[in-house]
Structures are given as C-alpha cells and as structure tokens.
Design the sequence.
C-alpha cells in the first residue's frame, strides 16, 4: 500500500475582489501542507493573487456570474498552479511591457511581469470552457523549502 | 492585515509611515485619499516610509506610481524611505527603482527635500 500523495487544493469563486480572502486562505493551507518556507510562501501568495485578480478583473470583467478557479498541486519538487477564467481570452505576448519607458508611469500592467519573474514556467491557453487557462510551474528545493 | 498609515511632519516634509499590506482595494485607496488631502492642504513634499510594509502587490506598486505622478504634477516631490528587501526586489523587477529616489536613512532623505 502506497502513502497518499500531497493534497491538491482547489477553489472556484465568483468574480468579485471581495472573494480574494478565500484565495489567500487557500494558499496558506497549501504552503502549510507542502512545508514551504517563508520566502517561497510570500512570492507564491503574491503571484497566485496576481493571477486570480487578473482572472477576475481582466478575464471575467468583474462579472460575478462568471467564476475564477484556482488549483494548486505538488508533484515532488514541483508546484503547479492553474488559474482559469470564463472570459474572452488574451495572449501573453500582446501585453505591453511595463518596463518600457513609455509605460513606467502607468498605474497598472505589472502583474504578469511579477508572475513571470518568480515562476519557472508560465503558459496561457484556452480553457475547455472557452476562457483563459494560465498554468504556472515553480520548482522548489526541498533543502529549505525555498 | 490591512495597510496602516500614520502621518507625521518634519518642517515642511510630510512623512507617511506605511505598514502591513498595500494591496488592491482598501490599502491603495487609503494612500490615495491621504495624498490628495495633504496636497489640497498645501503640502508638496512627501516621504513614504515603507519599513513596515511586508507585502505589496502590483496594484500597490501602481498606487505608489500614481502618488508620485500626482505629487509631481503639483510641482511637489515624493520619495521612498526604508524599502524592505521584498519591496526593493519588486521595484527592481518592474524598473520602478529608476523612477523613485529611495533612501535607507531618514535624515539623508530629508536633506534632499530641503
């Protein structure tokens, strides 16, 4: 008999920013379950939060009838995070570079950059339901959970 | 924990001691409203002390930028003090370190606002 693998964490929320507390709580549970260190936990919470806010605001246009979903799983030394929305989709390469001098003083547009800077893999596809599916992978060291 | 903000004044410089989490929603609104209120009262020199800020998201960064441009458009100055390592990392990643004057020492920062 083999031991059960690490838990998978998932939630689905209406597209309201007020629901983000549930996202933070779920990330906290996953961090505890996977034994991740404080530094990794911080950046994981930030990047997952950024991706869920993108799904709510830009994907679903804050329509509470549309849902944003999150799945966090771990296989060995790899974390996989999947965020899906029910919007019209977008392409990562169409997002303006927020570090370009013309965009530096704009108040928004930095979320994907932050996500890409922390995650080892980021790819965006169409989800089965027609919205966007953002898949992020983070490789972790089990020496110190960082 | 939500964002905390306390204002103090040294000569004509307003120092805003920020703490907690500067995130989308309430945290960014509190900062925006405070800056507008102080600008309307005639203040023009601001130092944002981020020593106790332990979490900031892209909306929080955006609010720092908005505060900077709002103050600059009124011919004022806004500078940053005591960045934590994580906040500095984010400003580095987003190249916002090229926008803001940043200081690790309040006295030195105040000298540049004279």
Sequence:
């Amino acid at each position: 008999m083999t031991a059960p693998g690490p838990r998978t964490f998932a939630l689905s929320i209406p597209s309201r920013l007020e629901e983000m507390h549930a996202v933070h709580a779920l990330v906290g549970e996953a961090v505890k379950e996977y034994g991740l260190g404080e530094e990794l936990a911080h950046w994981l919470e930030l990047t997952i939060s950024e991706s869920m806010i993108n799904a709510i605001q830009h994907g679903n246009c804050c329509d509470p009838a549309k849902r944003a979903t999150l799945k966090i799983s771990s296989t060995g030394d790899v974390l996989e995070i999947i965020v899906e929305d029910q919007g019209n989709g977008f392409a990562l390469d169409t997002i303006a570079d927020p570090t370009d001098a013309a965009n530096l003083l704009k108040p928004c547009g930095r979320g994907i950059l932050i996500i890409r800077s922390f995650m080892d893999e980021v790819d965006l596809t169409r989800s089965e339901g027609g919205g966007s599916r953002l898949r992020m992978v983070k490789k972790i060291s089990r020496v110190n959970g960082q | 924990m939500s964002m905390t903000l306390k204002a103090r004044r040294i000569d004509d410089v307003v120092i805003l001691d920020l703490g907690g989490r500067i995130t989308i929603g309430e945290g960014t609104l509190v900062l925006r409203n405070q800056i507008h209120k102080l600008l309307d009262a005639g203040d023009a020199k601001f130092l944002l002390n981020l020593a106790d800020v332990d979490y900031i998201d892209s909306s929080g960064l955006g609010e720092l930028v908005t505060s900077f441009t709002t103050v600059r458009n009124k011919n004022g100055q806004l500078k940053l003090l005591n960045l934590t390592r994580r906040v500095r990392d984010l400003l580095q990643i987003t190249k916002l370190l090229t926008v803001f004057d940043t200081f690790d020492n309040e006295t030195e920062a105040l000298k540049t606002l004279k």
The domain at 4-109 of chain B is CATH 3.30.750.24 (Transcription Regulator spoIIAA).
